[in-house]
C-alpha cells in the first residue's frame, strides 16, 4: 500500500513533535511543514529514547545559562518559569548558577559554528520537554494509572471461591460453534454493506459530501413515504423494524388488520417501564397488569403459564426489569411468526411499492458552493423529541382499550 | 495453619482445573476461523476518505467526543474546561458548557438529546441539561474514588460510568445515587460500550481484560483475555454478538461473544503506537482506530488488513466516532482540532 502525502506529512510531524528533527526558522511550531522551511536532525544525545527525565534543575540551569549569555533574551513564558524555579529551587540556586556559568564557559571554548549548532539543539530539546503555553507536547502521556493490576493481591479463600463460581458458570453457559457464529457475523456485514454510507453511495447524496441535507429530510421520523433503502432495512430483522419508529408504525398497521396488536403494545409498554422514570413505575405496572395480564384483560397476551405467574408475582414489587421474561417471550413470538407474515403481507408489499427511490444528486462545483452557503441548522432534536412525545400521548389516548364495563354503566345511568 | 494451607491449595487446584476446562471448551467450539468464514467476501480495496471539515474552537487537548442520536450534533470535551456542542453539518458551535473542573476525560450525549454528561480527574460525573436557555447542572454523581474514564447514557434516567477505581457503576439520575456497582476488574477501567439492545455492556481495563456485564443481573458474564497491555478502547459490533478492543500493545482484537473467544487480531509490524480510540462503520466492515502516532488507521474487520489511514492531526488521535447514520467519521486529537472525514 503506497503511503499518501498526508500520511508522510503526519509521520514527519510526529518526528518533529518528539524532537528527532527540529525546525530552524519557526522553532516554536513543532510541525513538519510541506514547504521549503529548513529542518535539522537532532543529535542522539537529546533523543527521547535516552530516557532522561528532564527535571527542573536542568531546566533552571539552561535558563540561567541563557540569561548569563544575554539578559532579556528569555520569552515571557520562559521568564515565568525562571521566576517560579528561582522561588522553589532557591535552596540550590547557588549550585544552579555555578553550573550555568561553567557550561557557559565551556561553550565559549568551542568553535563558533559548533556552539551555534549545540545551542539550536539544546533549544529544540527544551521546546519539546517544556513547551510554551497552549502548545501541545508529544511527551505528554496523559494521567498516570491509578491502580497497578500487577501488584500481588493477597488471595484469600473468598477470592478463590468467587473465582471458582464464576468459572463454573462460564463453563455451564452454552457456546456456539465458531463457524456458525462467524458465519452470522459475515452475513450481517454483507447484508448491511449497501446500507453503509462509507462503502456504498447513499441516495440522493451524502450530506457531508455535497452539503445538501435532502437525505436527512427524506429519512425523518414521521415521513409519509419512506425511502426504498429504509423499507429494505426493515426486512433485515425484527429488531431493525422495531428500532425504526417509522417501521414500527407500518408494523402496527399490519397488526391492526390482523387484530393482533396486543403483543407489540405489551412490548412497547415494557420498554416504557424499563426506560421511564421510577416515580411512574408503579402506575405503569398497574396499567400493564390490568390491560395485558389480568384474567379477562382487554388486551390479554398469550404467554405460557410459568412466565405469566412469575411476571404477575413480580409486579407486586415492580422494578425496571420485572417484565423482562414476558417481554422476551413476546418478542420471540413476534420474531418467529408475526414478523415473517408481515414481510409477506400486502401492507409491506404496498409500502415497498410506494417507497421513494430518490434520484442521485448531480451537483456542479458551482452548485456545491451554493449548497455550502445555504446550509441550515435543521430542526432542533429537542423539538423533534417533544413532537414525538405529543404524538405518543395522542396515540396512547386513541388506542386505550374501551372499558366496556364503564361504557355499559354509563349507558345504564343514561337510561 | 496446615489445614488452612491445604484448603487453599485445594481451592487453587480447583481454580486451575476450571480454567483449563474453559480453555478446552473454547477449543472444542473453535471449528472455524475468521479467514475461512470470510473467504468468500470480496476485499474492500483501498479506502480513501477525504477530510471534509476541521472544527476549530477548543484551546487545549481534546480528550473525548460523542455523537448525538440525530447524527448531526456532536459534543466534544477539551481540557481547556469546556464542552462544545457542534452542528457538524453547518460547522457551527451550538452550546458551550463551562466545566467546574478542566480535567475532563469523557463526555456523553443522551439518546434524547436533552442531556450531556462529562467527568474526569475530579472523580465526578456531572450531568448537564442543555435544553434550557443556558446549560444547567442537573446532577453531580460523586461516589467514585478514581478518575472518570468513560460515561454513557442508557436513557434520561440512567447513566453508566467507568472509573479509574476499577469499577463501573450504574446511576439513577432521578435520585443521583448509585444503583449497581460492577466490580471485577483489577486495573483502571478505561472505557465502556453499551450493546445495541441495551441489556448488556462491555468494559476494557488496564488489567488487559475486557468484560461483558449484564445490566439486569448486575454481574460479570464473560471475560476476554489476550491483550498484553491496557485496553483503552472498546466497542460493540452492531449485531451485538462481537466486540472490538484496542490496546496500548498496539493491537486491536475482535472477540466473538457466542463462542467466547478471540477471533481475529488487527496488527501490523509498522504500527508501534498504542490504540487510543475505536469506532466502527455502520455495517461493521470498517474499523477506525485512533493511534498515538497521530493517525487514525482503517482496518477491514473481516480480512484483518489495514485498508486506509486518516492523516492530518498534529498530535495523537484521542477520540473517534461514527454517527448512527454512518455518514462519516469524526476524529478528535490532542492538537485541539476535530476533523470530519468520509
3D architecture notes:
Chain A has 415 residues and is mostly helical. Among the domains of chain A are: 5-129, Methyltransferase, Methionine Synthase (B12-binding Domains), Chain A, domain 1 (Orthogonal Bundle); 228-354, Regulator of G-protein Signalling 4, domain 2. In chain A, 60% of the residues lie in helices and 1% in strands. Chain A has helices at residues 5-18, 56-69, 76-88, 93-108, 112-129, 157-172, 178-192, 207-210, 214-218, 228-234, 238-243, 245-258, 262-275, 281-293, 305-314, 324-344, 346-354, 365-373, 381-399, 404-414, and strands at residues 21-23, 39-41. In chain A, strands 1-2 form a two-stranded antiparallel sheet. In chain A, helix 13 packs antiparallel against helix 14. The radius of gyration of chain A is 35 Å and the shape is elongated. By secondary structure, chain B is mainly beta. Chain B has a single domain, classed as YVTN repeat-like/Quinoprotein amine dehydrogenase (Methylamine Dehydrogenase, Chain H, 7 Propeller), CATH 2.130.10.10. Chain B has helices at 2-29, 34-37, and strands at 51-56, 62-67, 73-78, 82-87, 92-98, 104-109, 115-120, 124-129, 136-142, 148-153, 158-163, 167-172, 177-183, 189-194, 200-205, 210-214, 219-224, 231-236, 242-247, 252-256, 261-266, 275-280, 286-291, 296-300, 306-310, 317-321, 329-333, 337-341. A four-stranded antiparallel beta sheet of chain B has the order 1-28-27-26, with no helix packed on it. In chain B, strand 27 (329-333) and strand 28 form a beta hairpin. The longest helix of chain B is centred in the N-terminal third of the chain and has 28 residues, at 2-29. Chain B is globular, with a radius of gyration of 20 Å. The N and C termini of chain B lie far apart (66 Å). The model of chain B has no long low-confidence stretch (mean pLDDT 93). The interface between A and B is large, with 81 and 118 residues. Chain B: WD repeats lie at residues 55-96, 141-181, 182-223, 224-265, 310-342. Chain B: InterPro entries: G-protein_beta_1-5, WD40/YVTN_repeat-like_dom_sf, WD40_G-protein_beta-like, WD40_PAC1, WD40_repeat_CS, WD40_repeat_dom_sf, WD40_rpt. Chain B: This is Guanine nucleotide-binding protein G(I)/G(S)/G(T) subunit beta-3-like.
Amino acid at each position: 500500500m503506497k503511503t499518501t502525502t498526508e500520511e508522510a506529512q503526519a509521520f514527519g510531524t510526529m518526528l518533529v513533535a518528539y524532537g528527532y528533527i527540529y525546525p530552524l526558522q519557526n522553532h516554536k511550531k513543532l510541525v513538519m511543514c510541506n514547504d521549503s522551511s529548513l529542518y535539522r536532525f537532532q543529535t542522539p544525545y537529546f533523543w527521547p529514547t535516552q530516557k532522561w527525565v528532564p527535571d527542573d534543575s536542568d531546566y533552571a540551569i539552561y535558563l540561567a545559562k541563557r540569561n548569563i549569555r544575554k539578559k532579556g533574551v528569555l520569552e515571557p513564558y520562559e521568564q515565568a518559569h525562571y521566576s517560579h524555579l528561582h522561588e522553589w529551587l532557591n535552596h540550590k540556586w547557588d549550585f544552579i548558577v555555578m553550573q550555568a556559568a561553567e557550561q557557559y564557559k565551556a561553550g565559549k571554548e568551542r568553535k563558533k559554528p559548533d556552539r551555534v549548532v549545540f545551542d539550536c539543539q539544546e533549544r529544540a530539546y527544551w521546546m519539546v520537554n517544556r513547551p510554551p503555553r497552549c502548545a501541545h507536547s508529544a511527551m505528554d502521556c496523559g494521567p498516570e494509572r491509578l491502580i497497578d493490576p500487577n501488584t500481588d493481591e493477597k488471595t484469600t479463600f473468598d477470592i478463590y471461591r468467587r473465582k471458582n463460581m464464576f468459572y463454573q458458570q462460564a463453563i455451564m453457559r452454552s457456546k456456539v460453534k465458531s463457524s456458525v457464529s462467524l458465519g452470522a457475523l459475515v452475513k450481517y456485514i454483507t447484508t448491511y454493506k449497501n446500507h453503509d454510507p462509507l462503502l456504498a453511495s447513499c441516495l440522493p447524496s451524502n450530506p457531508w459530501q455535497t452539503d445538501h441535507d435532502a437525505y436527512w429530510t427524506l429519512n425523518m421520523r414521521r415521513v409519509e413515504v419512506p425511502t426504498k433503502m429504509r423499507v429494505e432495512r426493515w426486512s433485515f430483522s425484527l429488531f431493525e423494524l422495531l428500532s425504526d419508529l417509522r417501521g414500527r408504525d407500518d408494523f402496527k398497521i399490519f397488526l391492526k388488520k390482523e387484530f393482533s396488536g396486543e403483543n407489540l403494545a405489551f412490548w412497547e409498554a415494557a420498554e416504557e417501564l424499563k426506560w421511564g422514570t421510577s416515580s411512574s413505575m408503579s402506575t405503569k405496572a398497574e396499567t400493564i397488569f390490568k390491560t395485558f395480564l389480568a384474567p379477562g384483560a382487554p388486551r390479554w397476551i398469550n404467554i405460557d403459564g410459568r412466565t405469566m405467574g412469575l411476571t404477575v408475582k413480580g409486579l407486586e414489587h415492580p422494578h425496571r426489569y420485572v417484565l423482562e421474561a414476558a417481554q422476551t417471550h413476546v418478542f420471540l413470538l413476534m420474531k418467529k411468526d408475526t414478523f415473517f407474515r408481515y414481510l409477506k403481507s400486502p401492507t409491506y408489499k404496498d409500502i415497498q411499492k410506494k417507497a421513494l427511490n430518490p434520484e442521485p444528486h448531480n451537483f456542479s462545483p458551482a452548485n456545491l458552493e451554493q449548497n455550502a452557503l445555504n446550509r441550515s441548522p435543521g430542526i432542533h432534536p429537542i423539538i423533534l423529541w417533544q413532537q414525538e412525545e405529543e404524538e405518543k400521548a395522542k396515540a396512547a389516548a386513541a388506542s386505550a382499550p374501551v372499558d366496556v364495563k364503564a361504557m355499559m354503566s354509563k349507558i345504564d345511568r343514561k337510561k | 495453619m496446615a489445614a488452612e494451607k491445604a484448603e487453599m491449595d485445594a481451592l487453587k487446584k480447583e481454580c486451575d482445573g476450571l480454567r483449563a476446562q474453559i480453555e478446552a471448551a473454547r477449543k472444542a467450539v473453535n471449528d472455524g476461523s475468521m479467514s475461512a468464514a470470510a473467504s468468500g467476501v470480496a476485499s474492500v480495496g483501498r479506502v480513501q476518505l477525504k477530510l471534509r471539515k476541521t472544527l476549530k474552537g477548543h484551546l487545549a487537548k481534546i480528550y473525548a467526543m460523542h455523537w448525538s442520536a440525530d447524527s448531526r450534533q456532536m459534543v466534544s470535551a477539551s481540557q481547556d474546561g469546556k464542552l462544545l456542542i457542534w452542528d457538524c453539518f453547518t460547522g457551527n458551535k451550538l452550546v458551550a458548557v463551562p466545566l467546574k473542573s478542566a480535567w475532563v476525560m469523557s463526555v456523553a450525549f443522551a439518546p434524547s438529546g436533552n442531556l450531556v454528561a462529562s467527568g474526569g480527574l475530579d472523580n465526578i460525573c456531572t450531568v448537564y441539561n442543555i435544553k434550557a436557555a443556558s446549560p444547567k447542572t442537573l446532577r453531580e454523581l460523586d461516589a467514585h474514588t478514581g478518575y472518570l474514564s468513560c460515561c454513557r447514557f442508557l436513557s434520561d434516567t440512567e447513566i453508566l460510568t467507568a472509573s479509574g477505581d476499577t469499577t463501573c457503576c450504574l446511576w439513577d439520575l432521578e435520585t443521583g445515587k448509585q444503583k449497581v456497582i460492577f466490580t471485577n476488574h483489577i486495573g483502571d477501567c478505561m472505557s465502556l460500550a453499551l450493546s445495541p439492545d441495551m441489556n448488556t455492556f462491555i468494559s476494557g481495563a488496564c488489567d488487559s481484560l475486557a468484560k461483558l456485564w449484564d445490566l439486569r443481573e448486575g454481574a460479570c458474564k464473560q471475560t476476554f483475555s489476550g491483550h498484553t497491555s491496557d485496553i483503552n478502547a472498546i466497542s460493540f459490533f452492531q449485531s451485538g454478538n462481537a466486540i472490538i478492543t484496542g490496546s496500548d500493545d498496539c493491537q486491536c482484537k475482535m472477540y466473538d461473544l457466542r463462542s467466547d473467544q478471540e477471533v481475529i487480531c488487527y496488527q501490523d509490524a509498522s504500527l508501534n503506537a498504542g490504540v487510543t480510540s475505536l469506532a466502527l462503520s455502520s455495517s461493521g466492515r470498517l474499523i477506525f482506530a485512533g493511534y498515538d502516532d497521530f493517525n487514525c488507521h482503517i482496518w477491514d474487520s473481516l480480512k484483518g488488513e489495514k485498508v486506509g489511514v486518516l492523516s492530518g492531526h498534529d498530535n495523537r488521535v484521542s477520540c473517534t466516532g461514527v454517527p448512527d447514520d454512518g455518514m462519516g467519521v469524526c476524529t478528535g486529537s490532542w492538537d485541539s482540532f476535530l476533523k470530519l472525514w468520509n
